[in-house]
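Sequence in, structure out.
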Amino acid sequence: MSTATDLHFPFSAIEGQAALQQALLLLAVDPQLGGVLVEGPRGTAKSTSARALAALLPSGHFVNLPLGTTEEQLQGALDLEAALQSSAVQFRPGLLAQAHQGILYVDEVNLLPDGLVDLLLDVSASGTNRIERDGVSHQHAARIALIGTMNPEEGQLRPQLLDRFGLFVRLPNVPDVETRKRIVRARMAFDADPAQFCAQQAEAQARLRAQIAAARQQLASVVWPDAVFDAVAQLCQQSGAEGVRADLVMLRAARAQAALAGHAEVSLADVQAVAELALAHRRNADAAQPPSPSGQANDPNGQQDQQQQPQRQPPNQAQTSKANAHSNNANANHSQPDGWGGMAAPRHTGIEPVKALRPFIAKKA
């Protein structure tokens, strides 16, 4: 029986974080999305939401990776007790083995040591954990989904690991007073009596668990129409995303979204619902804005340039003479040699006399 200290804040009672809840539910339906990265300031329910998901997982595999974890604890190592007692070389599973076919949760993932990041990159790409250490040569399947939380003020995440997270959620601060009040009231009620609060949310939690289980069972039968492939390819191309991982993630996320709704086919609305989650951390800042159907970029009337740049009238002769005179005066007063750009040219000053120095006479040894 769980005690009050074992209870986590219920997922169904989270307030004001609809995008985060959506991303976590999609990952629970299809772990092959790779993971969810949650970025936001302190106190925005990043860790609370991630830990609350554990109660909804059918497998129940939710493993926490502390920042102080060593490589041996993550990968596994030689079982010293077995080696001492029976002189047998046995493998002691690590956190990756425990998280197999489940979720590995990393709080402050941007602060992980480089050695652990390299291990996570290798396992995420291959789905296999390989150990060659302390006389142990072993490998085992480690198909895991990652959930990471981070505060961008404390440092950024390596781009290689960032791309391994299928979905990305950037949490804003609390948007309004009413939402802040609902969040605080729910949290205070939970802290006052966790058991009673969880009992009040038991029915809502059960509905979410049943919804996730049904969506998982239906997932493989949900199909993508050709129009969905076209829409996903266009969105990813317009965003400037590198490679096709964004396309794959968006298609999988849209399928999970349709399965959660009980639909047998992915719709364009499902694609729009998950597009930002898949593209937010892959969008190229220099990507050109998508053209509108009329051929003008973001200008359906085709008159934006004309409004911003009105047609200039040719100046008359008097205005031309005045402008030339002003230009000549400016050039005479502010001569700027090539290479100085908008900076003023250096001023030449004469050599100023300084106080004479007495010669230094070395002492005799």
